[in-house]
Amino acid sequence: xxxxxxxxxxxxxxxxxxxxxxxxxxxxxxxxxxxxxxxxxxxxxxxxxxxxxxxxxxxxxxxxxxxxxxxxxxxxxxxxxxxxxxxxxxxxxxxxxxxxxxxxxxxxxxxxxxxxxxxxxxxxxxxxxxxxxxxxxxxxxxxxxxxxxxxxxxxxxxxxxxxxxxxxxxxxxxxxxxxxxxxxxxxxxxxxxxxxxxxxxxxxxxxxxxxxxxxxxxxxxxxxxxxxxxxxxxxxxxxxxxxxxxxxxx
Length: 250
Prior knowledge:
This protein is of the alpha+beta class and 250 residues long. It has helices spanning 13-19, 25-38, 42-48, 54-65, 79-82, 87-93, 115-125, 136-148, 155-161, 167-195, 228-231; strands at residues 95-101, 104-109, 129-133, 200-205, 209-216, 219-227, 245-248.
């Protein structure tokens, strides 16, 4: 009953697991039936039915996407990488930034097939992303440690030779620095606009920078340009990046 390729040309997950003798043909049929009834992903169905472990699933996904498996239980994520995403995003999307590879972000993913999340991480962090596969159990344990300090089964490893890092403090410091920079930058823009007797301020996101223009006597004039490495905090405090923000300066 197995097929060897999906519609996008990659090998099918069920076939990979069957070829590795992780599941039988009968178990695959039952899991596919369960998937159809519940709407669950095939991997979730197989785990729910007790046919495979999350390690089996990670190995199959890594084989399907030709990606490495990242041993989250054996390493500590770089706090500066973790701080690029919120705890809510990390937990809901089941992804964790672990380090940098030059300017790219190494991202541990429980589901490396989630291309929408990959795109979202690229947009939010402004980094190219290098995905790697993680088991759900290791992901949950390391995320709990990072955000709550709960060591769980990581305790023995952490007590050996790794210095404890306050990930929450690093994330808070990172966001606090961003917030202070934004406040200072916006105050300077408003002050300069008032001095020029401007009636409006327009923040216009571009590909490589954010252009700031002001309206003086009914005519829009260029005020400044903010590089992308500085304007990232401006784009995510509730404003819509696709809109031109207008602020009254008079």
